[in-house]
Every structure is written in structure tokens, then in C-alpha cells.
Phosphoribosylaminoimidazole-succinocarboxamide synthase
Amino acid sequence: METEVLLYEGKAKKLFKKPDSKELRVEYLDQATALNGQKKDAIQGKGALNNQITSILFQLLAQEGIQSHFIKIISKHEQLIEMVDMIPLEVVVRNVAAGSFSKRLGIEEGTTLPQPIVEFYYKDDALDDPFINDDHIAYLGLATEAERQQLRTLALTVNRALQHIFAQIDIRLIDFKIEIGKTAQGHLLLADEISPDTCRLWDMATNNHLDKDIYRRDLGDILPVYQEVYNRLEKEFSSCI
Ligand code: ADP
Ligand code: UDP
């Protein structure tokens, strides 16, 4: 059997690779971080929930024609993915003002935006993932003009699909972040994860946070909240994936 090597250990996941394989095994970690890793805690069971939530969402997106790196779930806290060449951009889509958008622009959190807003951040921990514009992306050579347009279109397509999925389980999609990679053939592919760590999810009836803001803002335990998101997804969609 070929030996696996640890390719990368991040704040939320570990990636393992066999020498001649184009697939990666991902382990979702029982760890929560915020403020670029300055706040960090072990949270038993979080990895399994994010792995299972991401797996359901990537399968539902595939049914809507949105392909991702997801191949299959292999255990509660592990999945198999296609390895891609990551574009070092975090693409954020916002439907409702919240978080850094509210702070930066002075817009009250919870204000519905007339149309979704797409933002790009340069994924670089040392620089604290700065907000960047189109000219910065071109200057840094992070994506061509055509690729940037494709990223924007993909992000908006994912937004529509996710809004629809979450609406069916009485959740409002406030905003989210995605990451995208390039396949060996040069195609853009949705990668990384989509979970309560990377989305702001508000309960439709109560506006309660069902996401990582619970951790970022010290509002309580995230585990029951992530479990609630998983339970709703599982109940609604387990029969069709
Ligand atoms: P971070 O790097 O921000 O600490 P994670 O702990 O989630 O985040 O680490 C996962 C890493 O794997 C991220 O850097 C992400 O860009 C990268 N990644 C996600 N999907 C793929 C993929 N399909 N191929 C290669 N790298 C990936
Ligand atoms: N986000 C993320 N990873 C990051 C930064 C943001 O997944 O490194 C997600 C976050 O969960 C939210 C959206 O992107 O759903 C917008 O986050 P924002 O810019 O408001 O940042 P924050 O308020 O967390 O600083």
C-alpha cells in the first residue's frame, strides 16, 4: 500500500495525499479558530458536523449542475476530494449586511441588500486575508480577467442554489465564503468547504445565529447550533442524495 503523506495542516482541516494520486483525503478537525487563529479552541464533534454538512451541500449543488472537488464521504470526519491548484482568493457573497461589511460601511447588520454583493479577499494569513479589488487581483496575477468574471458568476450561481437549499430548511443565507481551484485541465472547480464555519446562517423564525458568529462573538456553544443545521439538512435531503 502506498504511504500517505500530510500535505497541509490548516486551521480546520488536514489534507493527506498518496504519491501518485490526484485525490486527497481530508480530515475535518475538532478545532475552532477566529481572528486569524488568535482565538482557538478544541471542540469535540465539530469536525464531523462540518464534514457531514459540507458533504450534503456539495452533493446538492452537484444536483444543480455545480461541480465541486467532492468525491465521497469516507467517515464522519473524513472525505475524499479531487486535488486542485487553489486560487488564493476568498470569494464572499453577501445577501444581507453583516460582519466586516457592516463595520466597514456603517450599514446596520441585518439590512437586506437589493442585490447580492461579491467581494474578493487575498487568502494570505500573514497579511490577514485583505480585501482586494480587481486591479489588485490583476497586479498580483491571482486570476486573469476572464477567470475573475468566471469566479464572480460561479459565486452568484452557488449563492442562488444555496439560498434555495437553506430556505427549504427555514434558514436565511446572510453571506458566505467559497474557495475555488483549477483542475489539471485548467477548469475552475468549487473546492474547500461550505459549512456554518464559512456561511452566516440565520434561523428564519427567530433570526438566531446558526453559524460561527456564536464562537466569534462568544454567544454560547457552537456544537448544538451546528448539530441543528446538520439535523435539518439530513431530515430534508437525506433521501435525495
Ligand atoms: P486554512 O488554510 O485557512 O487554515 P483549512 O484548515 O480549511 O484552512 O485548510 C484547508 C486548506 O486546503 C485550505 O488552504 C484550502 O485552500 C485547501 N484546499 C481546499 N480544497 C482543496 C483541494 N481540492 N485541493 C487542494 N487544496 C485544497
Ligand atoms: N468567512 C470565512 N473565512 C474567512 C473570512 C470570512 O469563511 O476567513 C466567511 C464568514 O463566515 C462570513 C463571510 O465569509 O460568512 C463574510 O465574512 P466577513 O467578511 O463579514 O468577516 P468577519 O465578520 O467574519 O470578519
